[in-house]
Amino acid sequence: MEVLIPALLFIAIQFILLFLHPLQPAMSRPHNNFTDLESLLAFKASVADPHGLLATNWTANASFCSWNGVRCSHRRQRVVALKLANFSLGGSISPHIANLSFLSHLILSNNALTGPIPGAIGRLPRLALLSLANNSLSGPIPLSIFNMSSLVIVSLAMNNLSGSLPSNTDPPFMLPRLQIISLSDNHLTGSITPNFARCSQLQDLSLSFNKFGGSIPPELGNVTGLNILYLGANQLTGTIPASIGKLSKLNELGLDNNYLQGAIPEELGNLLDVQYLALDRNSLTGSIPMALLNASKISILHLAGNSLTGSIPATLGVSWPQLEFLNIHTNQLTGRLDFINSLSNCRNLQYLLLSENKISDFLPDSLGNLSTSLNYLDLRSNYIKGRIPSTIGNLSDLIRLNLGQNELVGEIPSEFSKLKGLQGMFLYHNKLSGYIPPELGLMTGLNALALEENAFSGTIPHSLGNISGLQRLSLAANGLFSNIPDSLWSLSGLLLLNLSGNTLDGSLPQHMGNLKFFDMLDVSKNRFSGNISSVLGNLQMITYLDLSNNSFDGQIPSSLDRLVINIEYMNISYNRISGTIPKSFTNLGKLYSLDLSFNKLQGPIPEGGVFSNSSIVSLEGNPALCGALKLGFSPCPPPSSVAKSNSKSKLHLLKYILPPIVLVVLLLSCFCTRLIFHRWGKKQKLPSEDTSVNTIRVISYRELVRATDNFSEANLVGRGSFSTVYKAHLDDGLITAVKVLNSENQSALRSFDAEYYALSKIRHRNLVRIITMCSNLDFKALVLQFMPNGSLEQWLHSHNFYLNLLQRMNIMVDVSLAFEYLHHYHPHVVVHRDLKPSNVLLDENMTAHVSDFGISKLFLGDSHSILSATAPGTLGYMAPEYGSTGKVSRKGDVYSFVILLLENFTRKKPTDAMFHGELSLRQWVTRAYPSTVLEIVDPDLLKESVDIQREPSSPIIVGQCLSSLIELGLSCSRDSPQERIQMRDVVPKLQKIKNDFLSKSHRS
What is the pLDDT of residues 557-580, one digit of tens each? Predict the structure, then answer.
């Protein structure tokens, strides 16, 4: 007992000292506020801090005024600002934050916060700036926020907020100092409250991309200080209030993508400062008001997708000299094209989109006087007459020209050859005539040429074969004759060739098989003859094949069964095809139409597959076919007795002839075998070639069972839809990864042998190496190089991993080098189609290796191939053209690479909850670039520049490097594949950014 009392006393004293210790600095500063400290600690407790930015800094060892993101007032120790944007914080916002009574700036944007916005925030009497944008906050906006007299800026955009805005019957709406409020990209409903009219100092009101209904409150016209008004992409009805015309300071007005009706108010012409005006995709009627020409600063005008009538004002180019983008397509506009003359006054015009109207006039020569900056000229689907003016050749920057579906006559001007940058030329469905000018072969930038449904005559110019990047060529329904020039078959990137409806003759050449990635071939309604070439079987990417209405003869080549991968439509009708239908056609499982009618086919119709569906197959006009009662054919007759007796006599004859033949063959075989072994033995004495690349290591299933401890969970590395990966210790001590295929997944099993064959011949430092395989009836596995540092996925998105800026750049350089090899330096083009962080693996030296580019996702071709395939990649990483056309290509891989790059340096997944609706990772980065790009990059990278003991210029160097990387990413990921650069051009740009960073860092 005597010993116990002093011990308890000592413990008590230590407890008191430990309890008082954190308070001692505060007690020495009389202005300290313990409520602020408690509020900050409560906030810290409620959020998830994956990178430990608060855990390592928000401690009792320092005053909270020195904590990350915390700023105190100069006169007293009170928190006036909490700025934690881009800290990757999760969790929720604690309502205790409302106890920071001196708080004026609360900035928590660009994080991953969830849950509701605490209503207690409305109790902060000094709060001027509230920014919670780019999170995943949900629930309604607290009504208390709309009664904060101190608020100046409110940004709640890009969350999952729901509910409605307060109406006149709700609690008071008093925001007298409010200047900016952005609630865009949420799920808000109800009507737009007229209470915003009470905000006399309001300058920016953004409510777009929600679900607001009802009409636009005319009271908004009283907020005369508005610079920006965005109400687009909602469900607004009614008319555009004339009172909007009172907003004389308005710079940007977006009312697009709603259900607005009625006429465009004349009063909008009073918006003398408006530069951006978007009224497209509504149901507006009436004409374009002449008064709108008074808004002389308009540079971007969207009126497309309405029901506007009347003519386009003839003087609009004079009235809008700063015009850059004029989009009036899909209306009912009539009249003439005399406004083209005035547009020559707009020297910055880049887009002129007038398609799908009812304009009837001749194309003026003044088209050639338009701005040389013009990129897109689209006048399709009107009633435009006359000849195409040669002056269009002056538009040197033109990328896309579409004059299709009009009433144009005459010839194509040879001056078009000056349009070196033109990528798409569409003159289809007109009345153009004469020869197709051979000068078109000088337009080497073309990837699409559509001249179908005209009256062209003569031959197909041989010079078209000079357009090496041509992907789509349609010359259908003209008067072309003679044969197809051989030069066309050298266009290895050709996806679509439509020559139907001409009088072309000759045969299809053997070297047509070089175009292994055709998607569509239509040579129907011509005069082609000869056999159907067996090389058609090489076109394994083709989905549409039409050879009908020609004079082809011979038999259907059995090689066509190799089209099983993709073929959906096959028409060989109205020819002179004889012989039987190949039984293998039953395997063409993707066909929705097979037409073999009106030929000379005979014999039994194959059973099963497509032949069991009368709505898919057409076989009429072949009277010698039999079987397939469901298709209306007679049963096949049984074998005749004559045939039986003939077969018996043949067997009797074989008894006497076969034995001596077999004896001779055996003697010759023995002699040849001895000769081969003799020569082979001599060759063994010569130095052998290096065959290490093709060496196949034999490994048994039993060894794999031992190496993985019977495929135990302890050795499990990863699991996917196609396979499961285990770590394995082979008998010779080698550590590998064993990818065991899912035996129930037929698509994985079908491609196993092809994948191993292809990948065993691909070798590159930055690709995962396949060591061997193990395969039997019930088990298939690939044995791969083991990567001890896992995947880029875990390094980017797990709490216990961290990559610095240089490491991330090295990884992207490694990946780019891998794809440069796959796209440009391997004998065949290899398109990955599923690049994402989990498919980038890191070895012991943190060198990146690309994996998983084989299982039903590997296609080989020549160096310019662009592919058509059926299986998509991973959502968020797929290029946009896959969803619209189903086409994949090297440029699709470039897009996926850029998404990976943006994810690498922002640490945001493209599938993050904050990206919904029309907002994507790329769009989010685009919005921030260049002015606020450092607000969206991974904050750890910026923190790193502060932690490095260097001169103050170090953060600037890091910022410049990150800006350059983001700029590269945005420039390489445009929606149009043709506007993306190739991977062999990405590599040097990426390496230059890295080298610049290293040299500047060393100098600093």
Answer: 888 888 877 788 899 999 999 999
- Could you tell me if 781 and 817 lie in one domain? no
- Cα separation, 559 vs 512, whole angstroms: 14
Would you say the C-alpha torsion 618, 624, 625, 631 has a positive or negative sign?
positive
868 and 519 Cβ atoms separated by less than 8 Å: yes
Contact 355, 379 (CB under 8 A): yes
Cα–Cα distance, 757 to 773 (Å, whole number): 10
Q: Are 95 and 120 in contact (CB under 8 A)?
A: yes
Angle made by CA atoms 976, 980, 983, in degrees to the nearest 5:
145
Sign for the CA dihedral angle at 474, 492, 828, 880 comes to negative
Distance, in Å, from the CA atom of 443 to the CA atom of 439, rounded to the nearest integer, reads: 8
- Structure-token match 């992409």, residue found: 233
- 890 in the same domain as 805: yes
The number of helix segments (H) and strand segments (E) in the chain equals 17, 52
Q: Pick from 88, 122, 156: which residue ends a domain?
A: 122
CA distances from 342 to 239, 313, 370, 719 (A): 31, 10, 9, 63
Claim to verify: residue 883 and residue 837 sit in the same structural domain: yes
Angstrom distances, CA of residue 372 to CA of 320, 409, 754, 978: 17, 25, 51, 20
Identify the burial level of 895 via C-beta atoms within 10 angstroms of its C-beta, where 0-12 means exposed, 13-18 middle and 19 or more buried: buried
- The answer to whether 834 touches 941, Cβ cutoff 8 Å, is no
Joined tokens for residue 595: 């037409």
Active site residue 834: yes
Which residues neighbour 526 within 8 Å (Cβ) at sequence distance 6 or greater? Answer: 499, 500, 501, 502, 503, 504, 505, 549, 550
> What CA–CA distance (Å, rounded) separates 770 from 759?
7
Question: How many other C-beta atoms are found inside a 10 Å radius of the C-beta of residue 121?
Answer: 21
For residue 762, what are the domain limits? Answer: 696-786
The CA–CA distances, whole Å, from 433 to 387, 407, 439, 808 equal 10, 12, 16, 57
| Domain co-membership, 762 together with 808 | no
Asked if residue 780 belongs to a known ligand binding site, the reply is no
Q: Which residues contact 139 (CB under 8 A, 6 or more apart)?
A: 115, 116, 117, 161, 162, 163
CATH number for the domain including 717?
3.30.200.20
Reported as a single tens digit per residue, the pLDDT across 610-661 is 888 877 899 999 999 998 777 778 888 876 543 444 455 455 545 555 566 6
Query: Rounded CA gap, 573 and 569, in Å?
Result: 12
User: Could you say which of 204, 378, 834, 938 is catalytic?
Assistant: 834
- φ/ψ of 689, rounded to 5, equals -75, 160
780 and 797: one domain?
no
Q: Which residues pair with 726 in a beta bridge?
A: 716, 738
Q: Work out how many domains the chain is built from and give that number.
A: 3
* Per-residue b or e along 511-537, where b marks 16 or more CB atoms closer than 10 Å to that residue's CB: ebbbbbbbbbbbbbbbebeeebbebbe
CA distance 572 to 568: 13
> 842-865: per-residue pLDDT in tens?
988 888 998 875 433 444 443 333
- Whether residues 778 and 800 fall in one domain: no
